[in-house]
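Many introductory courses stop at the sequence. We go one step further.
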Amino acid sequence: MSPGWAATANQASRPRRTAAFPSPYLTLIVTLDDPLVLAAHPDGSVGTRTYDALVGGLHLRPALIVHDGRQSGIQFAVTPLGCREVCACR
């Protein structure tokens, strides 16, 4: 994903496992229906957790996302400098 945003709505016939690969962007995800389920975090420190909204930092290993076949939400990707501007950190 490049800097910007994307809306997603996926409907599959069976459960899915998706790797969220590392990127040079900070990522904000807001779910619209079911929560986001991370089965494996990039740092390995936490087991399976669910989130209605999530801010992901820069990481070196992929995260593992699982869902029952339905997934919808909005994802924003910003550069670290862009995040600083959005958050008015000066």
